[in-house]
Amino acid sequence: MNKRMGWKSLACVTFVVACALFAIVRTQAANKLDAKLAKKLISRVAGIELSKDAVKVQDKDISVLGGSSATVVAQIETAFRFAKNEKGEWRVAEIRTGNNKWEDVDLLVRAVNSEKQTRARAELETLATALLSFKRERGFYPVTTSEAALVDQLNPRYMKNIVRVDPWHAPYVYEGAQNRFTLRSAGADGKANTPDDVVRESSE
């Protein structure tokens, strides 16, 4: 750990995170999502393992959406370690997981963003495939700068599932001319034309 970072006098701050954890839990249609299963899945989210007692979910806190996804409101109790950065500002440095193990928060965030980048690339590829089908049939790509207008032209003939926002909950960006297109997610920082952008361009 950086020597310039000072540990807070209370090295371990334990509190109940009474959070509305809107976890989108995808399950097979034949499986019932109950409190026990939701608790198990949430305790392993983001690549960390929380103790079973740290997560509290009740069946009344589960709202199933269309049979293939659900919103779960959970209460999570854990501990965090705080540290000062180079500017003397407090930040969350570590989170306590199962078996009293401490995990670096920055590493967890990077792992989550890596998974989101993979998902963004897959969704942009789905859009690109639909665009290629559109061009093969009509001879040109949709000419628009609105991703919403683009999806309206592609769905449902060329793309069954609607894809409008990226894994960071920001709209995908589409720039299309008759003979080319660029699809973009601004990535974790939400800023276009930065190193973490996910981009899919036409190759024809």
Q: Tell me the structural class.
A: alpha+beta
Biggest sheet: strands, sense, closure?
5 strands, antiparallel
State Rg. 21 Å
Our estimate of the beta-strand percent is 15-25%
Overall number of strands: 10
Helix/strand order, N-terminal first: EHEEEEEEHHEEE
Q: Into how many domains do the coordinates divide? A: 2
Can you count the helices? 3
Kindly report how far apart the N and C termini lie.
49 Å
**Low confidence ranges:** 1-30
In helices, the fraction of residues equals 10-25%
The overall pLDDT, averaged over residues, is 80
| Bulk shape | flat
What does this structure look like?
- This protein has 204 residues and is α+β, with helices and mostly antiparallel strands.
- It folds into two domains: 13-100; 119-201, 2-Layer Sandwich (Glycoprotein, Type 4 Pilin).
- 25% of the residues lie in helices and 25% in strands.
- It has three helices and ten strands, in the order βαββββββααβββ.
- The protein has helices at 35-42, 105-138, 147-154; strands spanning 13-17, 55-56, 62-65, 69-72, 75-84, 90-96, 102-104, 173-177, 180-185, 198-201.
- Strands 1, 2, 5, 6 and 7 form a five-stranded antiparallel β-sheet that branches. A three-stranded antiparallel β-sheet has the order 8-9-10, with helices on one face. A two-stranded antiparallel ribbon has the order 3-4.
- A hairpin with a 5-residue loop joins strand 6 and strand 7 (102-104).
- The chain is flat and about 60 Å long.
- Residues 1-30 have low confidence and may be disordered.
